Structures are given as C-alpha cells and as structure tokens.
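User: Hello, can you help with two protein structures?

Assistant: Certainly.
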Amino acid sequence: KERAGDADYDRLVAASQNGQDSKIGLFGPPKPDDVRDIKWECNENDRRVIMEEYRNTPVRAVVEYVRDSCTVRAFLLPKFTNVMICLTGIRPSSRDDAIAAEGKYFTESRLLQREVSVVVEGWTGKAGNATANLMGTVQHPRGNISEFLLKEGFVRINDYSFKSIKSNKEMLRA
C-alpha cells in the first residue's frame, strides 16, 4: 500500500534516502567484522582442539538452543564455534513429561540468547564418537546453573560425569 502523506512514513523515507546519500549504516561499505565465520559442524578434530584450547578455563559463549534441562547448544566466542554442551555432573531427575518440560523451561528462561561462561571439562562417551558432546559447567551471571537446577529438583547428580567437575563439587552434593 502507498502511504505517502503519512508523517511517520515520510520521515522514514527521508532518513533512508539520507543514509543512501551519505553511504552510512546499511548502505555503507562492508567492514571486516560484519561477517562472522560460524563453524556449524563440530567434528572429532574440532572437539579435540576445543578441549586442548579451553579445558578447565572459562570461555564466553551464547546459548542458542536448550534441548532439555541439562543440554544446551551454544556458540563459543570469539570464534563462533557451535557446540552441544551437556552440563557436567547432572541428569534429568524424572521421565515425567510435565517435570521435564518445567526443567527445560527453567533452563531456557535463564540461559537462552544470553552470554554465559562455559568451562569445558570433557566429553560424553568416547572422543572418536561422531555424536560425542562436550561436557561443561555453565556459569549464569548469578551462578552455576547446575546448582539452581538441583535446588529446584529438576535434575539429580549423575555419578558418571560428576567425577569430571573440577570445582565446587561440595556445592552440588549439598
């Protein structure tokens, strides 16, 4: 529809024309940092490199997807490597769909599309397995998300991966 004569529309058209004439914003020249080189696939070699580079050290990440209360997909920054991370030391406490959905919502509402700190501590299964996920601790700005999930009863301790936790084991067991 044509909206000529509408004051807001005319103002936006004038601003767009000014941007084109000045070659700024969307109409300006591309900058080197404008295009991100995102690694969508994480193969066995990539996981080894991630483990060597980030093992037991905090790395910034942005959570893009929450599979369940204990598993998230995130971009590790600044390289934008897309990885699946299983939270170390915990597993869902129930197979009941209502409780599982509530646990997933709890995790989503606190982590989704937020920058967090991840400490990579290992990987699930065998390293050479194509479906092996990274195991790590996700630090929400207010603390360890695993502790919050345990306090609310959405998860329980997973003895298999609990041994991989390097710090604050006592807090999770309490």
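That covers the first. Now for the second protein you mentioned:
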Amino acid sequence: DRSVIVLLAPKMPDSELPLTRMFQPIMANLAKAIKLCRRNDEYTDGLIAERQQAEKLLQQSQFNLHTLLELSPVGVSFSRDGLMQEANEAYLRMFGYDDVAELRGRPVFDHLAPQFRAEVAERIRRRALGEKVEDIYEMKGLRKDGSEFPILVSVRRADLPEGARTFAFVIDIS
C-alpha cells in the first residue's frame, strides 16, 4: 500500500539533508496515525454493527413478548402504585372493556368486588414493604357492567429500573 503525499512550501528549507530524510520521522508517524485511524474506523464500524444487531434482537424479543401476551388466554395486567398501566386482550374481554385506554390510570380496585378490596389493599401494602405475601388466591372480579364473577389471581411484584410494577395473571373460573 503506497501513497504519495505532496508538500507545498513557500521556499526550500535551509538544510543539506535530502527532503526525504528530513521528513522520514514525520512520515513514519503519519503512517502510524493513518493506520490507527483505519483501525478505529473498523472498530467503530464493528461496534455499530453489534449495536444494530442488539437493537434488532431487542425489537424481536419485544414483539415476541407482546404477541405472547396478546395471544394468551389468561388475562394479564400491569400496574404501578395501585394504578392500571396495561392489560392484554383476554383481560379486557374478561372484565368487559373494549380498549386498554379505559383502564389506564384507574385504580386496580375498580376490578375487584367491594368485599375483597380491603384484603387486596393489605396485600399490596405488605408486598410493597417486601414482606412475603400469598400470591395466588381466589376472589371475585368486578366487570365494567357491575356484575361479579369468580377469578383465580396470581400476582407478582417486580422491581424494575423505572420503578416497581405489579403483574397480575387472572383466570375466570366461573
């Protein structure tokens, strides 16, 4: 790999040394710098390719998880601080809702028969304190139309970087 560099100067330097010898140390260091730049470019290109691959895998994983939740026959909901954030299609159908937007930001107690709310509030409080709490239990759910129905609920709390979330898995046992 040979290259040519042309140096322009207003006048010839005052030296007995030939130009090639005078610039040999500069040229050697310049060659090293060029090689370093090329290696850096290759390294950066490799990092970019790895990141793009990781982003693609993350998107695929998110798609798979979303598909799994949507196809699940079990109702699944996510809440934070006792307020609903998300629910899958099975959950919406089970409780008589058409769109998850109807649930977002509403208290989880809205989906529980009144006689179970105090018991669930105590579980939420104890779970938030890190205490061991029964996480699978039967109770009655409350549909949008006000009708009650028996459900089996499994609840798990997960501490995530953006804050704790509670995941509920609900099965209509009527």
